[in-house]
Amino acid sequence: MDIGEMFTDALPWLKKYRDAIIVIKVGGHAMVDSEARNGIIKDIVTLRYMGMKPVIVHGGGPEIDAMMKKLGKTPSFVSGLRVTDDETMDIVRMVLVGKVNTDLVALISRHGGKGIGLKGIDGNLLLAKKKGPERITVEGKDVDVDYGWVGETEKIDPDILFTMLEKGFIPVISPIGYDRDGRALNINADTAAGDIAASLKAVSLLSLTDVDGILMDPNDKASLLSHLNIMDCYDLIKKGVISKGMIPKVLSSITVLNAGIESVRIINGNVKHAVLLELLTEKGIGTQIVKE
Amino acid sequence: MDIGEMFTDALPWLKKYRDAIIVIKVGGHAMVDSEARNGIIKDIVTLRYMGMKPVIVHGGGPEIDAMMKKLGKTPSFVSGLRVTDDETMDIVRMVLVGKVNTDLVALISRHGGKGIGLKGIDGNLLLAKKKGPERITVEGKDVDVDYGWVGETEKIDPDILFTMLEKGFIPVISPIGYDRDGRALNINADTAAGDIAASLKAVSLLSLTDVDGILMDPNDKASLLSHLNIMDCYDLIKKGVISKGMIPKVLSSITVLNAGIESVRIINGNVKHAVLLELLTEKGIGTQIVKE
Amino acid sequence: MDIGEMFTDALPWLKKYRDAIIVIKVGGHAMVDSEARNGIIKDIVTLRYMGMKPVIVHGGGPEIDAMMKKLGKTPSFVSGLRVTDDETMDIVRMVLVGKVNTDLVALISRHGGKGIGLKGIDGNLLLAKKKGPERITVEGKDVDVDYGWVGETEKIDPDILFTMLEKGFIPVISPIGYDRDGRALNINADTAAGDIAASLKAVSLLSLTDVDGILMDPNDKASLLSHLNIMDCYDLIKKGVISKGMIPKVLSSITVLNAGIESVRIINGNVKHAVLLELLTEKGIGTQIVKE
Amino acid sequence: MDIGEMFTDALPWLKKYRDAIIVIKVGGHAMVDSEARNGIIKDIVTLRYMGMKPVIVHGGGPEIDAMMKKLGKTPSFVSGLRVTDDETMDIVRMVLVGKVNTDLVALISRHGGKGIGLKGIDGNLLLAKKKGPERITVEGKDVDVDYGWVGETEKIDPDILFTMLEKGFIPVISPIGYDRDGRALNINADTAAGDIAASLKAVSLLSLTDVDGILMDPNDKASLLSHLNIMDCYDLIKKGVISKGMIPKVLSSITVLNAGIESVRIINGNVKHAVLLELLTEKGIGTQIVKE
Amino acid sequence: MDIGEMFTDALPWLKKYRDAIIVIKVGGHAMVDSEARNGIIKDIVTLRYMGMKPVIVHGGGPEIDAMMKKLGKTPSFVSGLRVTDDETMDIVRMVLVGKVNTDLVALISRHGGKGIGLKGIDGNLLLAKKKGPERITVEGKDVDVDYGWVGETEKIDPDILFTMLEKGFIPVISPIGYDRDGRALNINADTAAGDIAASLKAVSLLSLTDVDGILMDPNDKASLLSHLNIMDCYDLIKKGVISKGMIPKVLSSITVLNAGIESVRIINGNVKHAVLLELLTEKGIGTQIVKE
Amino acid sequence: MDIGEMFTDALPWLKKYRDAIIVIKVGGHAMVDSEARNGIIKDIVTLRYMGMKPVIVHGGGPEIDAMMKKLGKTPSFVSGLRVTDDETMDIVRMVLVGKVNTDLVALISRHGGKGIGLKGIDGNLLLAKKKGPERITVEGKDVDVDYGWVGETEKIDPDILFTMLEKGFIPVISPIGYDRDGRALNINADTAAGDIAASLKAVSLLSLTDVDGILMDPNDKASLLSHLNIMDCYDLIKKGVISKGMIPKVLSSITVLNAGIESVRIINGNVKHAVLLELLTEKGIGTQIVKE
What we know:
By secondary structure, chain A is of the alpha/beta class. The first copy, chain A, has helices at 3-9, 11-17, 34-49, 61-70, 86-110, 159-166, 189-199, 230-238, 246-258, 274-280, and strands spanning 21-26, 53-58, 77-78, 81-82, 115-118, 126-130, 134-138, 141-145, 151-156, 170-173, 176-178, 184-186, 204-209, 227-229, 263-268, 287-290. An eight-stranded mixed β-sheet of chain A has the order 5-10-2-1-13-15-16-14, with helices on both faces. Chain A has a two-stranded antiparallel ribbon with strand order 3-4.
């Protein structure tokens, strides 16, 4: 295909996403592979220069684990949440804010964009409250768990994001919230991305994962389901097509859609130019979920 | 090459031309071939949606000739200028403003853009003065010529263009000026485009012609000169490489460059996506002339 | 009367119409008599400099007829609408946009104002849809008619007008609409003026005609009815005082009043300074219709 | 002449003075004759509604004298300046600010305008310094005089005037300045008007007096000199045509012109509609002085 | 206490009143004691520089009485209202606007602020209507009274106040209203302050009086009631704790609170720094009345 | 002294610093003592609410040392600069950006302000270049040293700071710069604070240290020099009064003063309310250095 053709083919999407806010959750393998990370950021800077307003929310589990080990601590999880004691909370902050976030902003700068690193306390962006302690059922037994400094979003104040977007910046957000006493809380990156997208009335939330999207047959890439609505999702969960780790991702997508976001897209961050292909081509590359 | 790659390859140009004003002179064969015209306008709408600010200046000689013939008049030219009596001036206005310009604006609309048709009198955009009568030398003989209502730019007031660009419009300009008494004057489209580009401090002026640019050997397309500066141009004129109809085009380009425009590009409007390929690829497709 | 007295007598109207949008439909004899046309435009430029915001909508039937004849075509009408084939549509566009409109803008410039010529496609101002083909009753017989490229307003986007008014321009609009496929449609100028006035929430619509307004006795100019409301109009139609060609004019005025315009004024464009006298004197010169 | 004609005849002046700041010094007989005062204010409100920006500076000598007498004090003057002791200063403030100024603002309101009364202390508009005590020559003898609280302009801060003009108000200014210690000083109204006009870069200063302007022969109204430049003025002073009380008025006009004001106009405030006739007719009614 | 402590202790109030409009009624003894007046104005300028937006409304009874006597007139009151004939109205205007108001603005300037003196006619701020004549009961007898030019607020247009506050000015308002015919009316300063506070949606109205607030035991300063709500007030009136002159003050406070003001504060203007202590300390110094 | 008095005594400084940008370098003991840190931040939030625009630049040496030790690394310094290898650079970033900076922003939030944490890469705020390797003289011997990732400011782009200040935020900046390839560089906090103050045209730079300022006799607190100019400083260095660690601090202050900052103040961060006392009292508490 010729390059001119490609641009004019993209015209409907350029129109649709002009000045649109798009939240991109960056996580998984792409975060540890520097080439993949570089490609994703280059795509995002390109989006910005084509007139869109991307907002990045990042994770960083593997890097946190590595630092904990260096400092002689053993990571521990309950129901997929990292149990976060005082020391762990400091490590989470240092790794996510001081290292991962800062590296992403530096990459944006290298590709000619203007990034700004943010966490929940900046401009009182993400007010959170501690989750638990609570009694849950693990493997059939009732147990009391205390996740420590794990939190849930209480309120988003998107004002600082609108200011930065208006000025041409690409915000990069670490999923660390703060409670009313100014204490840091560790928030799940997927949830934070969804909450932020909802508060910004973003047009779309892109979730970069390590899988191609939702497959009818997990062993057949060709069985990718490109376009689902909420009803479809519930059906597929019932039928077991959507299962395991994908269930919470899909359920949280449904929450976001109900909050007014037009579409959630689950794509494979390891595919080269996944972000651009998903947003600027007719077919896209992953699974797009819409309300109806 | 893969689509995503093409997009990110365009990043340097997207950055360079972000919010940049680019004047595009549309003329020649492309104006009579509806498919070519459609392609050019689609390219230009795409530019707009990627954040540039294109301004179109159009010609329309063949359509004027056709209407003159229908009305029983014979077109007549002196030194390349159309001798323009009262009736011809009315025909020029009707064809350029009422038909050609309006068709281009309609095409912009069809591709999802917002165009606005303008001529010199709108917002006092292009004040002109009558050219001649004067004594010139034709084929060795001195003759007195009166071009009639042919004019030259006296002053451009770009205010209305800045207003329209600010509001997201694509201006389409017919090269008809008006003198201080409100009389219409027929202006050469290339000259008008140059004058307008200079008054807008445009980044670049693209001139769509029927040739590939400046060729070292007119019979060998591969001998295209992609990048020239003003000194090169004078050299090539002296050597006869730039000759005939290309001389005034190049000389007027030099005037525009001296007025502060960064580059003038002579490209073949009949090449598919000529505009996008010239602006968004490293190599371009025609001849780019810069000051130094 | 002394000139100072006149200005202070006008104070109530200067106050009332300060910054007010006033749509002026210019048509009839005044359009072919250059002195009358010049006087009307001078009045309108004076309004602008006294702080009002006039918008001009013009017709041009006689000039279209003349050009059609020159090109060997015979004008044809059904129920007062010009049957508009492809060739006629081109002629309508060329005459209205290329000649009549451009002449009015040039006159504005000559009197020191800044005009801008517009038609329906500019800034997607007037989206229209084709009227018919339909079965109507003509002289007692049912006939199938196809008006060709005759259209009706589907939607007005007044954005470009507000922009131009804000910047001090006087917009001059040719009543040519465009459908969703970018095809030109011939619209009745009175209807277009009414639709535009409604979309702008204009304070008043002035319709310049060849008659003095609505007369109780058509043979007695002194029987002019200066002030009517909608109920009066229906009564006068029933009584036959309002008859023939005046009926559609009055019915369309009622539509405009119901859309929120404060007053419609039917005045004689052949009276010197008709526009100023109507707007800036207690008595006015024509018939003013208000809602209640 | 017909009304419409009068309006369009005013077009050149409406254009010239559109958005122009015009300072009007109101004094003399007109200030004590309530009908004349009413007429002047009505003219000024009309100017505002036609798009100009009038600023009023008023005097009030006769009313001050009257109040002084009521309170048992005898007005006293040296070289045309009112000797101003503490008690007199209080009377001056009370009469000018509390009565004369307030009456003018109320008249503006009655004619539908929005006035605002100001004196030198408001917004630190007019910083002044005490004049004298000094040794002057009176009737051939050197005497030491102390004018008391008489002041001269030290600095104008026109910011508050620009704010009020921008918001559509007509400022009415009492010529009372304040020194750096917040003490009130009595300033000559003509001088204050000139200083304010200069600081506002007004287009014109109108001085309403009780005479028709500068006459070649003081007994022949027909000998009015309509248009003078600075050189003419010096000549006429030398020749004795400009004499007595008119000399300081003309000299201060020259100062104002040198500060960048386009014209100073000396007109008879007792002529009906003097302000409008002077500004909106070709001929004017008084003497206009320009730089060259 | 150390100065740093004091500032940080004030932090909650600095936050609460940041950009808040606070109307301050200045009257009583403080108006005739120049040192007290100076202190109050210094406090108010300090408020402005700490980010609040104070608006001053002043009285001036004693100074009016003094001037009336000087001019041989005897002040006369009915039900606490000054009977205001033509001459008295002129004196009221001259004293309040020309002297008291102007002195306050000069004090603001001396402390480095920018004041602006206003009365009801400026910018049509306070439209009033004449009160009475009416039949009232005085000491058990029905009598017909005509207060003369005494008025009541009909409508406040706070536009000019918002403009001045936005620009950093401290408005100083004389309680003189104007009726629809431009006639001056004498308004009670407390009522005017309340009406103005309500129209500005002020956060608080401070009333500077000669008493410490509302005391449970009038002979015991320690019995001050610091915080009351509307119900408390009605109770205290019933019980006789609030009595005599304080009753109308409290009733008018209730009206203001019902119009949406957060609090009314009755404080002793003779206490040094009463305004700052009331607004910037936890305890305050007078009685604060709130809705509930 | 009474509270109100203290407030009005601060009036000259409230005026002087209204809307003024003040850069505050926070370092030393105050950074490790949580109560002192809390007090400093409360002072700074108070400044903000009184209308100033504070900007914080922080150090964090002790916390970096602690983390290095935890990770088994030994801090090493050459000429007072931390030798920064890859791993150290990561630790510096994590500790400063992820912990120290984030804690300060959380404290701002707790006191009711809105903070935002920044480092050099955000909005391309601080472009730096690597210092050395270079040959220096240490204890009389020439040695080649490589400081590793230690940098010097190349260019400040204060745009993001102006944006944040305009929106009411308190920026908190970690002194980490980035070079043109997006690599992090460790910058001296004092130097960074000075460079940032200069780029912002700040009114003053406050340097919070562990000493009381410059003392004539180091053992006598009463010998504090409150006010010095640049000439004084050079004299005192010559005389040995300014010595050791204070020399570079004073020399860098001189650079900042020459860049247009009005004053540099060296104060003891361990004194309660040091910031407020220095800025809002006549005497201040430390040493203020001005140009002349």
